């Protein structure tokens, strides 16, 4: 999978801070954004802990395996996007903060997204797929619990995500179903996450074309990121116009995220990146630099970032954090 | 997994017929039941085909892999139980038959159950788990499409099951959510299918006790079979008393199914069984004969069958097929 910056890389919180500071021009904004993100991550981690069976629940092994990857240092970008989208459409009690005032179901929806993301990482890391031994500096699930338990832990997190949405309190049945629709189709085979993984795997054997590149990333990375903001918008009670705008933001941010990810893999050293650089080219992956070249890729990322900002216009100050997150995604150095 | 008779074994339709004929005492009933089941299976297969993306849908490989296992000769016991439960509680237009007169959503719910069951079989067959090369006389999914695609095909069928329930037409949001709750918890880690698989895997290293045996099968086999009749009852608009009765029927049939499965593994030859006999003992599996002995196991199966019949009393002739299915499960010879 390709959500490197927020959840898939091996860099530490310290590295994260350092990264923020490199963006001189945004330093002021980023300082407050960093504090905000840290508080959000803490609240999301607490909710994930509340929503996941304890390690003592029988059978203990599977719950240990689920929790191992669920709490392996993810940056929680999907839950954060979900929560901020709910706030932007007016679903939160306090603009700018949203702490403790989130729209009904937004936290549970965000956690369900993180569970789906985590299950996909566990399965992606398996020997039969990417065969990764480490993720974020920790042994991958199958290296700790074995392949059988890792496969089942992924399945179990998928199941838990569905259970979490079904059991949301204080949200109407229609909205819960809308959330289940977004999550199940966003992670599916047709223009969804699984479809993107398959296209990516098969793409390594094909000619890199713009059409194939777009198809892979719209599905593999884009679908779940778009679902993140749309699910937040649903919890916040978005009208059609707000949903359309949030969808455009989600698509733009998702694409920008992927372009920057591909560019960093080429431009950065492994040390700067906190992971093996140049891995895409070595694996024959279809990337934006490979198809468009570096200069055009940089331009495209900036264009998507601008498109993301434009999509947020109607939301005013309630979308402040979404603006900052879009900038952070494009300006990041690892 | 352990639903050998209806979906996991390698015997053919001919073998099925032969099996039916061995139950002299039920011959008449079973003849008509056999025709009924054949018609049900045909209708369920047609619905599964309608609800699953075509092999031409992009990316084609994953849809080919999904369909390969979905149409590998399953006997569709879960969809059939779901449809008959809906009919028993009064949800079908025509008692005894139900063809074309099924309660709204019952067919989709049944297909979602079959998708979940199929995903669990694909993952169970993987080298890291049971490492089976054949299922029902056909190569297992990973032997045809490779491990990576088999893992993703299982994930994809899980996703499709959720999508199928979300998109049911003509059923209220509350009932759809009730179906999603049954399916997601029935296939989960706490007293659900995945939990049962884990307990079973770990059980091979433990002392066979009655408590452990019950815990394994209530979850691994029982949870989804119970969910099958409960989901049908939901679609049929069951009241509390009907739901309680249907739950008792599901639990009894699920347990009887497992007991008979264990007994056949000991008593039958591989030829009669259509699969390797004595595999449980060889693998050190915890079984009913191992814990209670053969004689007591036979008695327990008959008791569960009687409990299943008793649970159906309130439904009268509308439950005819459920009565027959309970008998078939206990009297089967393979």
Mean pLDDT of chain A: 87
Structure class of chain A: mainly alpha
Strand order of the largest sheet of chain A: 1-2
Query: Spans of chain A with pLDDT under 50 lasting ≥5 residues?
Result: 1-31, 93-99
Number of helices of chain A: 17
Reported for the largest beta sheet of chain A, the result is:
2 strands, antiparallel
Major protein interface: A-B, 52 and 52 residues
Bulk shape of chain A: globular
Instruction: Compute the number of strand runs of chain A.
Output: 2
Distance between the termini of chain A: 16 Å
- Measured by DSSP, the beta-strand proportion of chain A falls in under 5%
**Strand/helix succession of chain A:** HHHHHHEEHHHHHHHHHHH
How helix-rich are the residues of chain A, as a percent range?
55-70%
Q: What's the oligomerization state?
A: homodimer
Q: State Rg of chain A.
A: 19 Å
Commentary on this structure:
The structure is a homodimer of 334-residue chains. The first copy, chain A, has 334 residues and is mainly α. In chain A, 69% of the residues lie in helices and 1% in strands. Chain A contains 17 helices and 2 strands. Chain A has helices at residues 4-8, 13-22, 27-51, 60-70, 77-88, 106-125, 141-145, 147-166, 173-186, 193-203, 210-235, 240-267, 270-273, 279-283, 288-292, 294-311, 320-331, and strands at residues 134-135, 138-139. In chain A, strands 1-2 form a two-stranded antiparallel ribbon. In chain A, a hairpin with a 2-residue loop joins strand 1 (134-135) and strand 2 (138-139). Chain A is globular. The first copy, chain A, starts with a helix and ends with a helix. The model of chain A is unreliable at 1-31 and 93-99 (pLDDT under 50). Chains A and B meet through helix 4, helix 8, helix 9 and helix 10 of A and helix 4, helix 8, helix 9 and helix 10 of B.
